[in-house]
Subtilase family protein
Amino acid sequence: MKRVSIVAAAVLVTAALATPAQALPSSAVTSGRSATESESEFLVLYAEGADPTAARNAIEAAGGTIVKENGAIGLATVTSRDAGFAAALAGNGLIEGVARDRVIGAVPKTRPARPSEALRRAIAERAVEKEGHRDRRHLPHRPGKPRDLAEPLAELQWDMKQIDATATGAHRVEQGDRRVLVGVIDTGIDGSHPDIAPNFSRELSRNFTVDIPYDANGEEVDGPCEAEPDRSCTDPADVDENDHGTHVAATIAAPINGLGIAGVAPKVTLVNLRVGQDSGYFFLQPVVDALTYAADIGVDVVNMSFYIDPWQFNCTDNPADSPEERAEQATVIKAAQRALDYAHRRGVTLISSQGNDGFDLTKENIDRGSPNFASVPGLEPRTRTVPPSCQVMPTEGNHVISVSSTGISRRKSYYSSYGNGSVDVAAPGGDAYDTPTGDLDRTRTILAAYPKALAEERGELNPDGTPNVPTVVRDCDAKGTCAYYQYLQGTSMAAPHAAGVAALIVSRYGKPDRHRGGLTLDPDTVERIMKSTATKIACPPGGSYTYTRRVPQQDGSVNTVVTTHTCEGTAARNGFYGSGLVNALNAVRAHR
């Protein structure tokens, strides 16, 4: 998970997202348009059952202009120059909630040189995934390919061995069905990556975001649109300028093609549902649009390795927040849940990462990163105490299978959030400190696909194309095709293992969908099979586990960090592992 989470901007809603009677004319929105400095953006959630035309009229009467609408759940992106816009809609029976949204890429006259607090926070949170990235120790040389391993780098995929998603395990029984669609709701997928391209659907993939150059404080978010080849703020639906989504996609469905790695379900089809900004934010409107689009085109499984910004915890009754902030967070919860419900009703199995903060989500926590995006000048994250009633979305939404992370020893990863009743299942997400001494070993994280363009941009390749950092691996096949892979860790890496298992379950037990084509299987059935076939793991002896990490510092010293997490529950279901560690082989051998 984000920094393990991310946010987005305004794009025209396709016919799949809104019925013709509700769809706005194409002239209603210009993708990537600049907003004036006096213009604010809001998300307006219509009341359940409200007449859309009447709701639009109410918005216009309050001084708002609709630039985007998701007719499937009744959520509109609205701009207004009227400072009293939100107040004017308060108490209107047609409107259930109003939340201030991000800016639409307004470029201020002056910009401060220092990075914003939100950006520093994002960098710090991403450090969980990137920890040890500049460690100069070398990976072992690639040994000869054993006969029982289908792919050249399979010996480095301890994660697949942990859940029996191997050539001698689940792949002997079921490798997936191309009619099964897995939507990756993330920062994008590099559709040209040689170990993704065979399973990638450009036709179905969509980008629901527009790059945001600067925030309301004038600090860089995604950077100037002029940096894009076509000077547009909208990226194609087959690129990933962050690296997160590509890694997730390969874990799910890298094909068996004699190159690099294999995913959990190497024959299913990947659909890029991009909602994440290049900078790593995930905003509400793009997430909602991606979920409803996925439901409408017949996607079977979606992976959501993020939380919805700008609030990590969404609280409706927290005294630490103003009434306006509580109303905004309530709108996020309601709108996201409507989209999750919509997708679930239409056969989408929903998988989400648990989070990288090491929080027990069933207890009181300290949120130091919300709101993490400056939608108005001067806004900065603050520290607030959040009760367990506050929700991390989509992770804690209804119908969502939430996934915690394990390391190579099967212990819960040091960073993984947890909680009895919060975690549904566990899956390998890596733990660089899951070593006998507590010293960092990057090879104990997860290896998956990495866009070559990013490796080049970041200076990680030599002139001859070989990696110059030990966290990047190159593999070339007999035809001379080369691909790149990198080591990352996080619950973002755990969730796609579970999503791959879900895709295998649909492939194995799904029935032909007479209405939309492909296969279909009720999401509740998928969840039941996944949980019932998971490997049960009890809480550690004594109920708690103490993590001792020897963290390398830039000056060459080592800082010892000690944390303790308490596990509650039984062997059948507990706060570290939920119903157990997913197992691909058991899942495809299950009897419904």
Observations:
- Residues 1-36, 105-115, 133-149 have pLDDT under 50 and may be disordered.
- Residues 109 and 218 are 8 Å apart (CA to CA).
